[in-house]
Design a protein that fits this description.
single chain, 275 residues, alpha/beta, 2-enoyl-CoA Hydratase, Chain A, domain 1, Lyase 2-enoyl-coa Hydratase, Chain  A, domain 2, 2 domains, 6-stranded mixed beta sheet, 3-stranded mixed beta sheet, 11 helices, catalytic activity
């Protein structure tokens, strides 16, 4: 496809990431629809910056990541990265990727805010990993999750070899990574790859319902639970319970804990403030 600004969005040739505050929500939109929202280096840097800022923003309650137009994200723009007259230096990927694509996945996975991705159309390579690293991914039933690394002649990156086996097991991970099998949104839900698949017209409403629920939750406790789930994947049961104990000590000191107890005693829904 031509490297030209999208006629409707007016986005630059190398795309952009739009960060919009919507109350306690941070909405990040990948805007490069003429390239299926493939991530240019500048877009990847923008995602890193936005997520890093969000991690220390006490006024946020949840993060929403989506793509503009008909697709979520077609992955890293390898064509643009490897075009031009000058070849990158030896070791360029080893130096650059940990601070770019890999940093995006790490931030989405570890940030103490719930992250929701809404996926329509293609979620490919880095775009697929981005959706899988989120706490919740809601996809249209006809969306396509695809890991085409080997079909392009190189090995997987962006956490796909870590994420996929934990989500769907080794057999299905091999189907996606070694055979390049495409997985529809409906099948992805059936496999346990994503949170929910819905009819295409229902994607926005299902996503907003989930975001509202998360944004109304006890934000500190959500973040600590997210951290404990991650830690528990590599810990023994005693180690995991010790981590739970420290997290419990922290969460019991929040205002939301006091509100949760008061609401239980008064038999009413809690009104958490994220504090």
């Amino acid at each position: 496809m031509a490297d030209s600004p999208d006629s409707e969005s007016g986005s630059p040739p190398d795309g952009s990431v739009t960060a919009l505050r919507d109350g306690a929500l941070l909405r990040l939109t990948l805007t490069r629809p003429d390239r299926r929202n493939s991530l240019s280096p500048s877009m990847t840097d923008a995602l890193v910056d936005a997520l890093t800022d969000a991690a220390s923003d006490d006024t946020l309650r949840a993060v929403h990541i989506r793509g503009s137009g008909a697709d979520f994200c077609a992955g890293a723009d390898w064509v643009a990265t490897n075009s031009g007259d000058r070849r990158p230096r030896t070791g360029d990927l080893v130096r650059r990727v940990p601070h770019a694509a890999h940093r995006v996945i790490e931030l989405v996975h570890t940030i103490h805010l719930p992250v929701v991705c809404s996926v329509r159309g293609w979620a490919v390579g880095l775009g697929c990993s981005l959706a899988l690293a989120a706490d919740f991914t809601v996809a249209s039933s006809d969306a396509v999750f695809w890991e085409p690394f080997l079909a392009r002649g190189f090995s997987p990156d962006s956490g796909s070899t870590w994420l996929l086996p934990r989500l769907v097991g080794l057999a299905r991970a091999r189907r996606m990574l070694l055979l390049g099998e495409k997985v529809s949104g409906a099948a992805a839900e059936d496999w346990g790859l994503i949170h929910q698949a819905v009819a295409p017209p229902d994607l926005d409403s299902a996503t907003e319902e989930l975001l509202a629920r998360l944004a109304d939750g006890p934000t500190v406790a959500i973040g600590l639970t997210k951290q404990a789930l991650d830690y528990g994947q590599q810990a023994t049961l005693p180690q995991a319970m010790t981590q739970e104990l420290f997290n419990l000590e922290l969460s019991c000191r929040t205002g939301d804990f006091k509100e949760g107890l008061a609401a239980f005693q008064q038999r009413r829904p809690p009104k958490f403030t994220g504090r």
